[in-house]
Automatic annotation (TrEMBL):
NCBIfam families: rubre_like_arch. It holds the Pfam family DUF7129. Residues 4-46 form the DUF7129 domain. It comes from Natrinema soli. InterPro entries: DUF7129. This is Rubrerythrin-like domain-containing protein.
Length: 46
């Protein structure tokens, strides 16, 4: 299994705030599983 750092700025990684689903894509408006709000986890949080 290859570990992929979700905080890499080269790729966009999104996580659903409702169900926790994660997906790597160019753009994601809402979760494909539950239609919940997603956040880009590839950007640093302070």
């Amino acid at each position: 299994m290859v570990y992929e750092d979700p905080y890499s700025p080269e790729r966009s990684h999104y996580e659903c705030l409702r169900c926790g689903h994660r997906e790597t894509t160019d753009s994601l408006e809402s979760c494909p599983n539950c239609d919940g709000t997603v956040r880009n986890i590839a950007v640093p949080r302070e």
